[in-house]
Amino acid sequence: MTDGTSTDGGFQAAEVGATGLSAGHITTSTRDSADQGRRIEAWLGARLPDGAEPVVYDVVKPEGNGMSSETVLFTACWTDVREDVPSVRRFVARIEPELDKVPVFPAYDLRLQFDVMSLVCAATEVPVPAALWYEQDPGVIGAPFFVMERVDGEVPRDVLPYTFPDPNWVLTATPEQRERLQQSAVAALAGIHEITPGTHDLTFLGYDLPGTTSLERHLAWGERYLAWAVADGEPSPLLDECFAWLRANLPVEGTDTGPSRLSWGDARIGNMMFVDFEVVAVLDWEMAGIAPPEVDLGWMAYLHLFFQD
């Protein structure tokens, strides 16, 4: 979304409990990698200067964290017509998921992710992969997608969690290395929070939901998400109790909390890539919005405790 209008928090394309979006029915995408590579090659040729004649190869669907969108890695080689030399670049295509295959969200705004990544990359020193092209036409490869630069590094895994005792790089690290990872992750989060409604136009991130503050609207988004998630299953009395408590004890934004700013949303080390225990890429911006900084910090701390339990 780039027209400055607000979004209703990811619910604009589906009513709560809409047919085909049941949160309890997650299956695997059937898109073919080889076919995607051929289609991306033709699409890329239309975006590069005449005579570039790109060739796309090494098309891979990686296994990794998250299931809310589809990721394809590929390499492209073309002729740099300005220098008359070959250019080889490694990219990542982030593809809008088939909602009946991976219903993690009731609706999906890929353009919002592209715009947020572009903003953070341009306005801060936070390491975010450069978002290069956005394609809205689903006819190219079967769904809207965007292409970003590929960054190499290691991601703390979700499955099995990075706290499990079998060999993994987080668990086998020294205390000093884990502290460096921790400090680097928090520093990146602080860098994201340098972007505020006062420094940049963030209206495209605002939830069109009830509330007079960003924190109230953030809570309203969570309540509506819960309603969607349990619509085809059993309610959660515990979560209902938690939301009721939050409503009754909501901090006063700007007094009990910091002022609202850009919120990463899914702020956790499992959405970061590291080299030598330093952050080299902040990934996965599906849940980005506007909120006090404590929202991201609390999410990061909670998820770390969650994986330890």
Any overview of this molecule?
The protein is α+β, with helices and mostly antiparallel strands and 309 residues long. It has a single domain (33-308), classed as Aminoglycoside phosphotransferase (APH), C-terminal lobe (Aminoglycoside 3'-phosphotransferase, Chain: A, domain 2, Alpha-Beta Complex). It has helices spanning 33-45, 110-123, 175-192, 214-229, 237-248, 293-308; strands spanning 55-60, 70-80, 85-95, 131-135, 145-149, 261-263, 272-275, 278-282, 289-291. The strands form three sheets. A five-stranded antiparallel β-sheet has the order 1-2-3-5-4, with helices on both faces. Strands 6-9 form a two-stranded antiparallel ribbon. It has a two-stranded antiparallel sheet with strand order 7-8. It is globular.
- CATH homologous superfamily assignment: Aminoglycoside phosphotransferase (APH), C-terminal lobe
Q: Tell me the β content.
A: 15-25%
CATH architecture: Alpha-Beta Complex
Structural class: alpha+beta
Helix content: 25-40%
Task: From the alpha carbons, calculate the radius of gyration and give it in angstroms.
Answer: 20 Å
Average pLDDT reading: 86
Q: Main β-sheet, in a few words?
A: 5 strands, antiparallel
User: What count of structural domains?
Assistant: 1
In CATH, the topology is named: Aminoglycoside 3'-phosphotransferase, Chain: A, domain 2
| Quantity of strands, as a count | 9
